[in-house]
Amino acid sequence: MLRAIILDFNGVLLDDESLHFGAMRDTVADLGVDLTRQIYWDRYLPLDDAGCLEAICRDHSVRLNPKELASILERKARLYRRLLQDRFSLFPGVAGFIRGAARRYPLALASGARREEIESTLDSTGLRRYFVIIVAAEDFARGKPSPESFLLALERLNAALGPPPILPEECLVIEDSVGGIRGAKMAGMTCMAVSNSYSSERLQAADKVVASLKEVHPESLQALFKELA
């Protein structure tokens, strides 16, 4: 039985993955790294900023001390905000899906984005009130494909809602990345993937793949979840 929905943020709600790529590309260029779009999508897209930068540095034998790492991450965040320019572009169908789903199930976000980025987007688009829990990059140590963010979101949902506890197998995760799907499955949760960032062929590890949340009707999720489980 479906009892809760956990959503990713970038690439599922907010259409900004290209902005994150552009900001990270320009940031690591100062380190002598030529980051291409293909490499970013194939290797780094599911990671939070810190995990992404650390992985890029490892792959290119770049050594940074903690102070340098923090400074570079702050520069990346500034570049991202400059590119975003307060234009919060939601994917088609997202707002209607969130409003409809929240009437039936508690919603949580589990994302590698910074909390300030998530909160400002949800506040600006009027969607903040529909989410019981937000798990952001600051809340966990291991990013996707680790299941940590999903399990933490469920733990906090249960703390907020009280008994009876929601079990992992009673959660539907909505993701857009290969790493996110892996994390959801490792958490013991059913996963629906939206092909916003990757082709549907790349997302076949998910229990179901859809082209857009426009085609997903919240009232049909219970039947769909039984079909997927």
Could you explain the architecture of this structure?
There is one protein chain. With 229 residues, the chain is of the alpha/beta class. It folds into two domains: 4-15 and 89-228, 3-Layer(aba) Sandwich (Rossmann fold), CATH 3.40.50.1000; 17-84, DNA polymerase, domain 1 (Orthogonal Bundle). Helix content is 45%, strand content 10%. It is built from nine helices and six strands; from the N terminus they run βαααααβαβαβαββα. A six-stranded parallel beta sheet has the order 3-2-1-4-5-6. The longest helix has 19 residues, at 66-84. It is globular, with a radius of gyration of 17 Å. 41% of the residues are buried.
User: Domains counted in the coordinates: how many?
Assistant: 2
The count of strands amounts to 6
How far the N terminus sits from the C terminus, by CA atoms, comes to 8 Å
Principal-axes geometry comes out as: globular
Q: In the CATH hierarchy, what is the superfamily of the largest domain? A: HAD superfamily/HAD-like
SSE run: EHHHHHEHEHEHEEH
Which fold name fills CATH's third level, the topology of the largest domain? Rossmann fold
Number of helical segments with 4 or more residues = 9
Q: How would you classify the helix and strand content by structural class?
A: alpha/beta
Q: Which stretches are low in confidence, meaning pLDDT under 50 for 5 or more residues running? A: none
Share of helical residues: 40-55%
Overall average residue pLDDT: 91
Spatial ordering of strands, largest sheet: 3-2-1-4-5-6
Task: Characterize the largest beta sheet: strand count, sense, and whether it forms a barrel.
Answer: 6 strands, parallel
CATH class of the largest domain: Alpha Beta
